[in-house]
Every structure is written in structure tokens, then in C-alpha cells.
From TrEMBL:
NCBIfam families: wecB. Its EC number is 5.1.3.14. PANTHER family: UDP-N-ACETYLGLUCOSAMINE 2-EPIMERASE. This is UDP-N-acetylglucosamine 2-epimerase (non-hydrolyzing). Residues 26-367 form the UDP-N-acetylglucosamine 2-epimerase domain. InterPro entries: UDP_GlcNAc_Epimerase_2_dom (IPR003331), WecB-like (IPR029767). The keyword Isomerase applies.
Length: 373
């Protein structure tokens, strides 16, 4: 029996996290030849994921350069992936999400007439420049893809509205839920002493992440100022902010949070400690995409500090609120969840719309069904 040669391509930590469970299923599927190629668009953060999930890439393009532009990333990824695809001759190439690696991977496969599977297909914010460049990347990838693995019905509906054939769109759930099952541990001990010393039982520990390009400047100043005021108002609230490496983000954070003893600025965390910190937290405030899916699966309300989101399912289900970037609105929404137990429980107990932890198995089953056709 001929094996289906599947080449997975990813380059950043979020892609690696969401591809890892699929790779793990394929490793135990005898009908599939599993080939892994990383671009290392993000080097250090991606290596953390490879180590955690014990993934050994067959090809490592190692394209990362300090200060790299979007054009440089795309061109280097496209050239490197073309060479690997010509050598490997995969039947199916899998990409996940919406990074420059994803678009370059899909384009390289298209140029070699290789079938493309797009994991996490159909997300749309409706604004081509928010998030930037992700909204464009995922739409361009969708045009090239043969198989659209949509996490939710909303994602499938988005693709149908854009004219994609329904028999090539598959609702699978989101593989990030699968990945959490590998990472969360009941009695997890952090390497950073501060995180072990926090009183998760008697204090409200709020996890903050913020790094989006479109928020840098006045929007981010508003976000951080509102959170700072909340931490000053409530003695039982502490903020933990694994601060992004972007120097612009760091400058704003250090300026606004300076001198507040209840705000803890720490270095970026690896995926495993980060998810375990999220599991112990009271509330998540973020402009990230993936956290809007992960936190609800852990029963943690999410306040999304963006003007729009490509993940409306969480908003509709009540697990997340889109609160924008205005100081007053962010402060008020946080204030409600801190003092109003009923409102908090309503969000914490809402049903997670992003899946049951079996998305990876569904995706591999679909590849087995269609991969050689």
C-alpha cells in the first residue's frame, strides 16, 4: 500500500503548538509518511515548542534574522520551501493559520502543483489590515488551498460565502484544544519563583498579553493604563504580564506600570509554563488570537483588547468580550468581572465553542480519505 506523503510546514510558536497534535497523530498512523519542515520564522520561541512536544524536523530552513521585514520572511521562506518540496514531492502540504510562513508555504506548494491543506481555515475579521498581515495571509492561503479544515461552523460559513466548495470544507474543532491536553499539569511547578509565590487561591491573578502591531502607540497606552488603574484600585488583584520582546511594547509597559507593586512584568514564557499560568489565573486580558480559544477551554473569561476579532464564536458563546482599546471601556469591563461574581461565573461557565480535543484525529482521517485522490 502506498503511503500518503504529508509535509507539515510551520515557522512560529503558535503554528507549532497547533500543528504538534496533528504531527503526533500522524506519527502513529502507518498509512502516512510524516515529513516536517520548519522555516523558523521565529527561532527561539519555536524551539521551545519542538522540545516540549519532542518534534524533530526533517528540514530546518532557519530563516530568522533580527529586524526582518515581512518581505524578507516571505521571500526566504518561499525559496527554501520550493527546494524542499521539489526534493520531497509530498502528496499533501499542511499549513496552519495565517503567518507569512503559511502563505509562503501554500504558494510554494501551489507552484509545484501539490495539494494544500489549510488548518484553521475560514477565520475572518473583515478588515484586511487587522490583524496585519494575518488577515491577508489567511485569505490568500484560502484561495490556494484544496482542503479547508475549519475549526467552527462560523468559519465554514465564511468560506461558503466566499465561494469555496462545501465538499472541501471540514469542521474539525481547533487543534489548540488538543495541544492543551499535553501541557496542563495539576501540580505544575514553575521555574520562575515569582509564579510559585503568587496566591492563586486568595488573589485574583490577571494574565495580560499584548503585542499586536495595530495596538502599538495610543491603543496600547490605553490598555496598559486601564489595567494599571485596576491594579491600584483592588488590593486583591495582581497582574502578570509576560512582556513581548518588541522594544516598543516594552517601552510603553515599563513607562506605564513603573512603580506599581501589583503588576509583575516578566520575560516571555515557554508554552508549557504559560498555559499552566493561564490555568491558574482568574481572568485573561489579551490582543492575541490563540488565547481567545485556549482560555475558554480552561474556564477563564477573556477580555479581547482589539477593535475586531476573527474569532466571533467566543463572543457569541459568552466566553469572551470584545472590549476595544479605549481606557474607560477596558477599565469598566475588568471592574465588572472583578466585583460581580454572577457576571464572572456567566463567562467562566459558558460552553467553549472551539472543540473537544479531537480535531487532530479528524484532520488526519480526512487526509487518509482524500490524500491520494
Amino acid at each position: 500500500m502506498n503511503k500518503i506523503r504529508v509535509m507539515t510546514v510551520f515557522g512560529t510558536r503558535p503554528e507549532g503548538i497547533k500543528m504538534a497534535p496533528i504531527i503526533k497523530v500522524m506519527e502513529n498512523t502507518s498509512e502516512i509518511e510524516n515529513i516536517i519542515c520548519i522555516t523558523a520564522q521565529h527561532r527561539r520561541m519555536l524551539d521551545q515548542v519542538l522540545n516540549l512536544f519532542q518534534i524533530e524536523p526533517d528540514y530546518d530552513l532557519n530563516i530568522f534574522k533580527p529586524g526582518q521585514s515581512l518581505t524578507e520572511i516571505t521571500v526566504r521562506a518561499l525559496e527554501g520551501l520550493e527546494e524542499v518540496i521539489i526534493k520531497v514531492k509530498p502528496h499533501v502540504l499542511l499549513v496552519q493559520g495565517d503567518t507569512s510562513t503559511v502563505f509562503a508555504g501554500a504558494l510554494a506548494a501551489f507552484y509545484q502543483k501539490v495539494k494544500i491543506g489549510h488548518v484553521e481555515a475560514g477565520l475572518r475579521s473583515g478588515n484586511l489590515y487587522s490583524p496585519y498581515p494575518e488577515e491577508a495571509n489567511r485569505k490568500l492561503t484560502g484561495i490556494l488551498a484544496d482542503y479547508h479544515f475549519a475549526p467552527t461552523k462560523t468559519n465554514r460559513d465564511n468560506l461558503l460565502k466566499e465561494g469555496y466548495p462545501g465538499d472541501r470544507i471540514f469542521i474539525t474543532g481547533n487543534t489548540v484544544i488538543d495541544a492543551l491536553q499535553y501541557a496542563i499539569k495539576k501540580d505544575y511547578v514553575f521555574n520562575l519563583p515569582l509564579l510559585n509565590q503568587l496566591d492563586y487561591n486568595n488573589k485574583k491573578i490577571i494574565l495580560l498579553t499584548s503585542h499586536r502591531r495595530e495596538n502599538i502607540g495610543k491603543p496600547m497606552e490605553n490598555i496598559f493604563s486601564a489595567i494599571n488603574e485596576i491594579a491600584l484600585k483592588y488590593e486583591d488583584v495582581e497582574i502578570v504580564f509576560p512582556i513581548h520582546l518588541n522594544p516598543k511594547v516594552r517601552e510603553i509597559a515599563n513607562r506605564i506600570f513603573d512603580g506599581n507593586p501589583r503588576v509583575h512584568l516578566i520575560e516571555p514564557l515557554d508554552y508549557e509554563p504559560f498555559t499552566n499560568l493561564m490555568a491558574k489565573s482568574y481572568l485573561v486580558v489579551t490582543d492575541s488570537g490563540g488565547l481567545q480559544e485556549e482560555a475558554p477551554s480552561l474556564g477563564k473569561p477573556v477580555l479581547v483588547v482589539r477593535r475586531e476579532t476573527e474569532r466571533p464564536e467566543g463572543i457569541e458563546a459568552g466566553t469572551a468580550k470584545l472590549v476595544g482599546t479605549d481606557f474607560e471601556n477596558i477599565f469598566n469591563e475588568m471592574d465588572i468581572l472583578i466585583r460581580d461574581k454572577r457576571e464572572y461565573e456567566k463567562m467562566a461557565n459558558a460552553v467553549n465553542p472551539y472543540g473537544d480535543g479531537k480535531a487532530s484525529e479528524r484532520i488526519v482521517d480526512i487526509i487518509l480519505r482524500y490524500g491520494l485522490k
